[in-house]
Amino acid sequence: METTAAASSGRADWNLRYEVKAVFLLALGYGLVGLDRNIIYPLFPVIAKELGMNYQDLGLISAVLSLCWGLASILTGRLTDRVGCKRVIVPAVIAFSLLVGGSGLAAGMMSMVLLRALMGVAEGAYVPASIVATVEASKPSRIGLNVGLQQMSAPLVGLGLGPLLAVGMLKFVPSWHWIFAIVAVPGFVIAVLLAKSLRADAPAAHAQVRENSSWFEVLRYRNVVSGTLLMLCALSGLVVLSAFLPSYLTDHLHLGMDSMGLVLSALGVGCCVGVVVLPALSDRFGCKRVIVAALACEVVGLWFLTQTGADPVRLFVLLAIVTFLIAGVIGITVGPFANESVPPELGATATGMIVGLGEIIGGAVAPAVTGGIAQHVGIAVIVQIALGSAVLGLLISAFGMRDPKRDFAGRRAEAA
Questions:
Q1: How many Cβ atoms from other residues are within 10 Å of residue 384's Cβ?
Q2: Which residues make Cβ contacts (< 8 Å) with residue 281, sequence separation at least 6?
Q3: CA distance 376 to 373
Q4: Among 19, 177, 192, 333, which is most buried by a count of CB atoms within 10 Å?
Q5: 30, 153 in Cβ contact below 8 A?
Q6: At 154, which helix (H) or strand (E)?
Q7: Angle, nearest 10°, between helix axes 312-332 and 287-306?
Q8: Which segments cross the bilayer (predicted)?
Q9: CA nearest neighbour of 328 among 286, 386, 392, 272
Q10: Residues 135, 137, 141, 144, CA torsion sign
Q11: Which run of H or E residues covers position 73?
């Protein structure tokens, strides 16, 4: 029965051993993506002092990486559907490992921006291909769970362990340059393991469809459009909170550094748990139901956050709940929702479109616009902006989405 279910879902030759191995290695790869992307932030005070950078330079470095990440996700999603996941994943891991190591050789602002931009291209290529490879390796009843486990590794390693590793290694290596070289090494090991373990599955039955399909064919599917809009809202809210909460907590609520650090740790806790739990629930209750319920609860949580004063414990609980819900919605949207809303031969294209546009707007444009608004009206506005994005996302999901499993099954029945 498991083999039949897998075959009917477009996942040939499913077996448990391959599922566990593939999901584990793809999760490790995504963890390295999170580490390589975020390790520059705890190192930035040291880097800035040596290279003469400022906060504006840090914002530019972050925006360029996000922009290139988003564009690469869109472009390589289409490429992945043409050539298969493995042919994109392995070169991408090698490339971003080389580039994070090269970041340690940066001698100034321009060289750092160039290296991080190229790294964004490589990491953006990895994301949609790795998600689709996880879906293809999974038993149909575990797609949401496995995508959640894979997605969890980025905040766990990048936001949770990354700062500890960066600060710890600074005590033992001659300079920050060495740290980038050290964190590059695991990527080459993972690339070799992925090259040996991943199946080169580019289903022959879909080759002609992929060849003749238009690049933006996925935008004909209602769920891809609504999923992209939802991703813009969810990622904008998450990035705005992540980027500006330290200033909100210290400048507006006047918390001390220790209390601020305690509250911010809720970001990692909420993201790690939410990105696993909610996609797993979507396997049982359906994507739309879980997304709508999560966004409704998020709106309530953000409203309470706007009403909360300088109480670190309450702030921690509320922020953990809110990020739990946001991360879970993102995990469902880029994983089971995107892949079940289109035919199998367009899965990576749809995922790349949703991830890419979300990263461009949410990762690059949203924090820049929010920074300008906060500069004029005050830092307290950031929670209200996140609340507004959650309300808009709730409306999109409630009135713009269709249940992807039911919708896809209907289209297949009509085609038959």
A1: 15
A2: 144, 290
A3: 5
A4: 333
A5: yes
A6: helix 143-154
A7: 160
A8: 18-35, 55-76, 88-107, 176-195, 229-249, 261-281, 290-310, 316-338, 350-373, 379-401
A9: 272
A10: negative
A11: helix 55-83
Give the pTM.
Answer: 0.75
Sign of the torsion angle spanned by Cα atoms 96, 29, 58, 361: positive
Looking at residue 204, its pLDDT comes to 40
Structure tokens at 410: 């209907």
Measured between alpha carbons, how far is 335 from 151 in angstroms, rounded to an integer?
Answer: 9
Residue pair 148/277 in contact by the 8 Å Cβ criterion: yes
Question: Domains (ranges, CATH) in the chain?
Answer: 1-200 (1.20.1250.20), 218-416 (1.20.1250.20)
78 Cβ neighbours under 8 A, 6+ residues apart: 215, 348, 349, 352
Whole-number Å distance between alpha carbons of 395 and 297: 13
Contacts of residue 175, Cβ cutoff 8 Å, sequence gap at least 6: 50
**Extended beta strands in 15-167, E state:** none
Residue 206 carries which side chain, given as an amino acid letter? Answer: H
Instruction: Provide the token pair at 403.
Output: 């249940």
The pair of three-digit structure tokens given for residue 200, joined into one six-digit string: 């080169």
Instruction: Dump pLDDT digits (tens) for 356-384.
Output: 888 888 777 887 788 778 778 888 888 89
For residue 307, what are its two tokens?
A: 């009403």
End-to-end Cα separation, the chain, in angstroms: 22
